[in-house]
User: Fold these one by one.
Assistant:
Number 1:
Amino acid sequence: MGISVKNLTKRFGEFTAVDHVSFEVKQGELVALLGPSGSGKSTILRMICGLETPDEGEIFLTGEDATALPIQKRGVGFVFQHYALFKHMNVWQNIAFGLEVQKFPQQDIKDRVDELLRLVQLQGYSHHYPSQLSGGQRQRVALARALAPKPKVLLLDEPFGALDAKVREELRNWIRRLHDEFHVTSVFVTHDQNEALEISDKIVVVNQGRVEQIGTSQEIYENPQSSFVAGFIGPVNVLRGKVEQGKAKIGQFEFALDKNMLEGHSAVEALIRPSDVVLAMPSEGKLPTGRVKRISFLGWGIKVDIVLKDGQLLTVHLTKERFQELQLAEGQDVYIQPTDAKVFKQKVASQDYSI
Amino acid sequence: MPAEIQLVKPIIQRNPWVRPCLLSLVLGYIAFLIFVPVGTLFFSAFSEGAVSFFKVLCRWDVLHAFGLTFFLSVLAVLVNAVFGLIIAWVLVRHDFLGKKFLNALVDLPFAVSPVVAGYMLILLFGRTGWCHAWLQAAGIKIVFSLPGMAIATAFVSLPFVIREVMPVLQEIGLEEEQAAHTLGANGWQTFWRVTFPSIRWGLLYGITLTFARAMGEFGALFVVSGAVSGETETATLFVFRAMDERMYQEAYAVSVVLAAVSFFVLLAMEALKKRIHEEI
């Protein structure tokens, strides 16, 4: 096992930032800690690293209990959002720092730094100072510096957070390639669901200091276990309704219910992905259930905003081909059939993360 | 293109006399306060020729006074560099009850007149002072001797290192140090290899100010030293005595040396300021 945390808890005064969090990361896995800002994901990462001390719980790194281990002895590489490069050292000295303080032989240091400079494609920059580098280059130096002493685990705290969109994209793919090559057990914190979905083997979704769900990108996207996860990962429609005769009745639609949801919860909400809806022209047996309010061009497809009969809004994504077939126009009545929906109990004060 | 010319034309009509008037006011003020007195000093010091100037500087009591000033200043620099660094560290990095009070207290030597500072030492260590009996039993003499003068000099020059290092420490933050820890560096390695290089120019600037302030100290030393010629008489105290005894040539010569040293310290400070701005 690469990393294992059990019942990790951290309080800052009255505020519980991390609340009994447990999860495991297999050797060589790339795992994303995904959650909104303030969800406690960074605190979890900092506790694994040893930058924060947990109030409760245990941390195991490659099988060893590291809960009480000082930061220097944990063998973790940490990459900060704002790089935290040593400003007065050049690129070469930055990367060599960990090897020097750990008293590696001079020749080994030289070889390792050269190897890492090649790896992060900064061979020509060994005498540059951090202030002379771009954001993407700085983050690559930070990564090389963290990897230099061959850490058991690599922790990345919002590693792409301070970069602009195009560089983020590049660095994201590059980190995935790097990981496939070296298989360092890695955990990275992000609030960007696309980032998490795209490069991680597994995602741990964190909200309000608790783990909401753990799974692969596909599991989490297709089978969210809470309305929070469904809403946070990818675009989603939230439709309100209630339980009637053992089914969730939402407007004109009916959805099957889990048995454990039947009792005591009459108010429910259905979460429907915009791509999980079939639209058709009304015909016999296909009575109109909504009216097209707005049609927007998204580049890869078409977004259709629909007002349902009961006044709730529904957004649907169509491929260009399907849109061509349908010949939709704004103000038109349409037949709507959701193909998939996740029904959850309605929360009292539901957060608004619909699109 | 008349429209563009319209744009660059100043909106406010300036009186053409304002600039030269302001400039001559500034120059006149600085000349009155700095150029003229300093010039007079140099002129007077060399009025009886360079030989007599250097003769004064070779007098035994003058050499002793310079030696003492230098010794006290270096001592103040050493003590306040170490303690100033520690105090700055504690004030920036630690949280404790009374931190704000301590932070304000650090500036006290700026606010209190040096004469009062010297008097406080007399009250504490003098013949009627609280610690007198205890010190006498231990055979330690503080007032009217070197230890008292060292304490007085350290007191008046305490805030400089603290006030120069604190903002730099605040600015650099914790992340670089945390990064060093994750890479396996212990506290000592982290301080010397990561923190110290970041604060060194600020520290050096503080040290320069400390040295300049210590060298020019007069009031507290006047009270606490007893100003015995050849024993507890520093350069500034010598100038005072020389004036008093109408040894003007001696007073001028020593003053010129003190002024010259201050001038070089000033140059060093300017160079350092540039480095600090480059680093941050």
Note: Chain B is about 80% helix and 0% strand.
Number 2:
Amino acid sequence: MISSLPFAALAHYAVDWQLPPAVFFFAGAIVVGVLRGRAQAAVALLVPLVGIPNLLGLTAATVYDVEFFTYTLEFLRVDRLSLLFGLLFHIAALIGVIYAIHVRDTVQQVAALAYAGSALGAVFAGDLISLFISWELLAVTSVFLVWARRTEQAAGAGLRYLIIQVFSGVLLLAGALIRLHETGTTSFDYIGLEGLAAWLIFIAFGIKCAFPFLHNWLTDAYPESTPTGTVFLSAFTTKVAVYALARGYPGTELLIYIGAVMTAFPIFYAVIENDLRRVLGYSMINQIGFMVVGIGIGTSLAMNGAVSHAFNDVIFKGLLFMSMGAVLHMTGKINGSELGGLYKTMPITTTLCIVGAASISAFPLFSGFVSKSMVMLALLQDDRPIIWLVMLFASAGVFHHAGIKIPYFAFYAHDSGIRTREPPWNMLLAMGIAATLCIFNGSYPHLLYSILPFPVDYVPYTASHVLTQTQLLFFSALAFAWLNLVGLYPPELKSINIDAEWFYRRLAPQSIQAIVAWIDHTGGLLKQDAKAQLKDFVDGVTRHHGPEGAMARTWPTGATVLWVAILSGAFLIASFLP
Amino acid sequence: MSDKSQQPSHPSPPQPAKASEKSHIFDNPQNVKRLLRIFYTTCAALFGAEFFIHRHLDHAVESWYGFYAIYGFVACVALVLAAKELRKAAMRKEDYYD
């Protein structure tokens, strides 16, 4: 990693406060909690704006250690990796706050700032215990953004989300404590996959990173949040996990395979999913897959690709979620089966959405083009053609479902008859900022490249790269057009699709029900058997000792005399025996 | 499952289309046809461009003529057909979990 810090050119805007960036966000959350109305929005807006100069002023020498009994919590570790994610989260928070200016819901305003603060706390954590604290804060602050939708589904999805996220934190804590016991330190640096502690921490990161089979909290909860809440959710949790993997597990080969699966399987779901924000949830896992593969390869090129793609993804995925949030906000609908033709009344939103779609699809001049390609090239340099083919398939697929399907079914397709207006100015402004950044990073990547962890000697704009990528995308679009024209394209249907969540939402409850029923049934049989045996016993006792029983009869005196005579006779005979 | 249209509030309830509203660009099927024609021409041009632009190879796997174009098309058709099969296995009614 380059040792010098990246923001030297911006030193002019820096202030010398040397505070952990999270401080501003938590303080802001408290202030926003007591304010109401416009003052609330104004303070929320101020937080990232004040935070950025502080961030620019941080130096590697800045530490913020807190003694906790005999343990030292390192709340501030400044290097190129943490600063890049720090800057990214400030930008994401600023865009999110602008997008949510009109929201008059204290719960959401407080939760959003505290959530962003938790993410900043996590990327600047220098040890695993302070990472754990931020890790759990991420969970408990963000769940309120899901619950803020105040629907029955949101309540259920939020609870499932919270349980899974907190469990991830528990694994992280367990791993950290075992590591402390074994090595005497919990400093958060390269971990690698050796020993129980390393695996526990790996799985904890994997849950937040939406590894296959651990991913369903994302596609379950994110689409149930409010239009503005999802924008915040999409920015932080998974990218904190990507950061944590980049810090702890670079060059871990297993990540290449995990990442490749993550890029490929969600696109099938995305094609048939009806809820357009859930489509974006699946495409989010697909994009994180590219980052995970990059971290797994671990070369300078791959790591730069992973990290820069995380940067671009937060912005373009945020833009796509914002455009769908705008549709939901204005029409109250988000299912592809109920939308269509909105370009007539929301032309600006349509255009901004297409910018996001072009960026995620990695069109030349848009941001995905300059970052994803680094991971793809690194795969070929590492001589992994099979994985590369899988990821190329996923690259074509992402254009298919996120690049075409999202804008097409929301804004074009058949006219749903819905006539609405553009969303409020602040939503358009936030989307405009994000779209500008997408085009800026895509057309002038040098600024982004200059803040990456490793030196960049990659040139994205060669005639060859532009041609091949454009061919890939246009012929993917051709497939979409052809399938639509011949009627092979699956229509948007009012439905849901079962995924890995089926195991805990259907199989587990049903298994438990079945087990309970079996216990109940078997218990019933046992009870019947015991009852029958008890009855036999009672009957027996009654027969012998009951009022009619032989043992309860009053015996006549004569019988007694007879018995006495027999016994006396027997005694007499016995006394004559030798 | 409660209807998602029951949002707390959205500023303008969606209005039904008015018969008298102005015609938009894709209301005219001619425009759709024109767009598609431009699109097909671009695809053909891109496919042919490989004759003139030297493609830098990073690996033997990408060496066929038109590899990216063919792979993109085949990948997406396969994706959609496979997704239709997935739908048979995975699709449930909206209230499946309720």
Note: Chain B touches chain A through 65 residues (CB under 8 Å).
